[in-house]
């Protein structure tokens, strides 16, 4: 027979009830996550995961059980492990809940950022930049737009680059 750690995995209905408060996680964490404040954000987020008994999925202490176990009546035969199915469901519910909260938080910022990127393309000037740095600025903005599913046509990009060079390059 296979051995498993004695870890209590919440049943799906219990987990759904537990995750309900996480659906409003943005209201529970006063710090809005950005690239500069992860340690502070983490210090608020982890207690929520611990209080809802979900931290084990994050730190790995609630490990995934094997997908199959030996039958109690015939140890040579394997059957589906219900604990495995419950763990997968619980893990995916947690992932979905957290992901949804992050999407809600960052999507509005992303939309604003996407709206600003074309303006940046139109207003970049070479000025004191080296030609390489000037082109890299365009490439960076164009790559960001492509990543956001808003690619810039090569012909438009060429016009922006030429337009920002200045009179010395006419």
TrEMBL record:
Pfam families: Retrotran_gag_2, Retrotran_gag_3. Transmembrane segments: none annotated. It comes from the Eukaryota. Residues 28-65 form the Retrotransposon Copia-like N-terminal domain. InterPro entries: Copia-like_N. This is UBN2_3 domain-containing protein. It comes from Cephalotus follicularis (Albany pitcher plant). The lineage of its organism: Eukaryota, Viridiplantae, Streptophyta, Embryophyta, Tracheophyta.
């Amino acid at each position: 027979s296979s051995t498993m750690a004695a870890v209590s995995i919440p049943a799906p209905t219990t987990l759904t009830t537990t995750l309900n408060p996480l659906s409003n996680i943005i209201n529970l964490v006063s710090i809005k996550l950005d690239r500069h404040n992860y340690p502070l954000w983490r210090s608020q987020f982890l207690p929520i995961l611990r209080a809802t008994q979900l931290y084990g999925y994050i730190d790995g202490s609630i490990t995934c059980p094997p997908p199959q176990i030996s039958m109690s009546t015939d140890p040579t035969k394997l059957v589906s492990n219900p604990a495995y199915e419950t763990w997968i469901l619980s893990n995916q519910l947690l992932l979905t809940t957290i992901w949804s909260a992050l999407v809600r938080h960052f999507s509005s910022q992303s939309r604003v950022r996407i709206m600003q990127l074309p303006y940046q393309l139109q207003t970049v000037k070479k000025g004191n930049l080296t030609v390489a740095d000037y082109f890299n600025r365009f490439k960076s903005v164009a790559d960001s737009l492509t990543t956001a599913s808003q690619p810039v046509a090569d012909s438009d990009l060429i016009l922006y680059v030429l337009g920002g060079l200045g009179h010395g390059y006419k």
